[in-house]
Design brief:
By secondary structure, this protein is an alpha/beta fold. The chain has 2 domains: 93 residues, no CATH class; 372 residues, Alkaline Phosphatase, subunit A. The chain is built from 13 helices and 17 strands. Strands 1, 4, 5, 6, 7, 8, 11, 12 and 15 form a 9-stranded mixed β-sheet that branches. A two-stranded antiparallel sheet has the order 2-3. The protein has a two-stranded antiparallel sheet with strand order 9-10. A hairpin with a 4-residue loop joins strand 2 and strand 3. Helix 10 packs antiparallel against helix 12.
Length: 483
């Protein structure tokens, strides 16, 4: 939407509240007292959205920072076993660039998968022995084996996948959806983020705030981070000696002052400040209930594995994601670091899989048995894959590694209108290049938006004289994966 048009909407809203006797604070309090925390009416969003009937109402993105190794987990290549220890065939490489840790592939050798693969389910999907729980739910999954991107380093590749641009400053997918579709729960943020890393890992990635940023959209659309601690949201609790009633009175007074400034300047960030104060007040009641797992059965907790009760773990975050989803949160972004295995395939890869495999599969099972999977899109994947050739010495197995590989890698999706039990696209016989039905990152983003009822070419925001969108000026919907 054009910011000038959007500002006129703020003006209309401002004039309405300015003429009311109670102001926005009391109106928000009345809404809080009347609701039960499970609101069904949409708050905010653009008129005319969704553009068509959505297949999914919400997204849970299980983002695996660091680049999970596709050829060791989900993309089975028998030829890699046959070529183990042999030089990299240069006809597969061409002019490809890799990270500075590899440079060129001269002198590199091919590396077989570190663990065997087997076929599972009616779909016959190939899955490594490293992922036994995911193997048990393959008939609910849609694998894309032909995703490819353009960046060879972590931060730009992550930013590109999440925002459509490799440099910080563009809105991420969760922010776009919050802006376009609004919020289905006025007591929790529409875009929530949690991070985790396996204990003891030496290859964790940095979680930059711009991975869940709103870019040039008003900042109220950025992701709200839930920390893995007894105080999950910073600055949410009242200071000692301040009662909830006192806080309510202060917020009413502050809201009136902010309304005066909004009337004077028309700055959308002032409207953001008003909205976020009210959201924080409501979250004082909603967050303690959200993080209280006492109502979860032992059978449900067991789905997520032994770490589910440890705040800050991937298992805990997966259960939190389900609880957020059933409360109407639009976009839940879980980011788990530690997949950057340049020299730890035979050690830390095993830890990563142990910590993430059961919770990921448990989330699918939990959503499914609650009837939530049909309209919840779950995505698992990283910013790129890993090279099918070895980084390190073939005779030093404890230090085997793989470098970054953007030219072909695997993600999986489940629920939310995608076909279950299918595999789409193929990499070549060595997992180096796309062999069939390539899916560019912009195609993936277009498909994500389509599943939520959005035409990716029509959800735009004018900034610095240009209409921006998540997919930049590219992208096609991958119709073949739609149910």
């Amino acid at each position: 939407m054009n910011p000038i048009d959007e500002n006129s909407l703020h003006v209309s809203r401002r004039e309405f509240f300015g003429r009311s006797a109670t102001g926005i604070g009391t109106a928000a309090l009345a809404s809080l007292l009347a609701g039960d925390g499970y609101a069904t009416d949409r708050v905010g969003g653009l008129s005319g959205l969704p553009h068509f009937a959505p297949r999914a109402k919400r997204v849970i993105y299980l983002f695996q920072n660091g680049g999970p190794t596709h050829v060791d987990l989900f993309d089975y290549k028998p030829s890699l076993k046959e070529m183990h220890g042999q030089p990299v065939p240069q006809e597969y490489i061409g002019e490809k660039r890799f990270s500075t840790m590899t440079g060129n592939t001269s002198g590199k050798v091919m590396l077989a998968p570190v663990e065997p693969f087997k076929q599972y389910g009616q779909s016959g999907a190939w899955v490594s022995d490293l992922m036994p729980y995911t193997a048990g739910v393959v008939d609910d999954l849609c694998f894309i084996h032909s995703l490819h991107t353009e960046q060879v380093n972590h931060a730009p590749a992550i930013q590109f996948l999440l925002s459509g641009g490799e440099q910080p400053g563009r809105p991420t997918a969760g922010a776009w959806l919050s802006y376009g579709l609004g919020n289905d729960n006025d007591s929790l943020p529409a875009f929530s983020v949690m991070t985790s890393v396996s204990k003891g890992t030496s290859c964790g990635q940095i979680f930059y705030d711009f991975y869940w940023g709103s870019g040039f959209l008003p900042s109220k659309f950025q992701g709200v981070k839930f920390r893995g601690s007894s105080d999950p949201v910073l600055y949410l609790n009242n200071p000692e000696g301040i009662s909830r009633e006192m806080r309510r009175g202060w917020l009413d007074d502050i809201a009136q002052l902010n309304e005066l400034k909004l009337a004077e300047y028309g700055d959308p960030e002032i409207a953001t400040r008003i909205a976020q104060y009210e959201m924080a007040y409501k979250m004082q009641a909603s967050v303690p209930e959200l993080t209280d797992f006492s109502d979860e059965s032992e059978a449900t907790l067991a789905l997520y594995g032994p770490q589910v009760k440890e705040p800050g773990t991937f298992a805990y975050n997966c259960l939190m994601a389900r609880r957020l989803a059933e409360r109407g949160v639009r976009f839940v972004q879980l980011m788990h670091a530690g997949w950057d295995q340049h020299g730890s395939l035979t050690t830390e890869l095993y830890t990563q899989c142990k910590d993430t495999d059961q919770p990921s599969a448990g989330l699918i099972q939990d959503l499914k048995q609650r009837g939530l999977l049909d309209d919840t899109l779950v995505i698992w994947g990283g910013e790129f894959g890993r090279t099918p050739f070895l980084q390190g010495n073939i005779n030093d197995r404890p230090k085997w590694g793989r470098d970054h590989h953007p030219y072909a890698f695997t993600v999986w999706m489940a629920g939310g209108g995608v076909k279950p039990g299918v595999s789409y696209g193929e990499s070549d016989d060595l997992g180096i290049n796309i062999a069939k039905d390539g899916v560019h990152v912009h195609d993936f983003q277009a498909t994500l938006l389509h599943l939520l009822g959005i035409d990716h070419e029509r959800l735009t925001y004018r900034f610095q004289g240009r209409d921006f969108r998540l997919t930049d000026v590219h992208g096609r919907v991958v119709e073949a994966v739609l149910a």
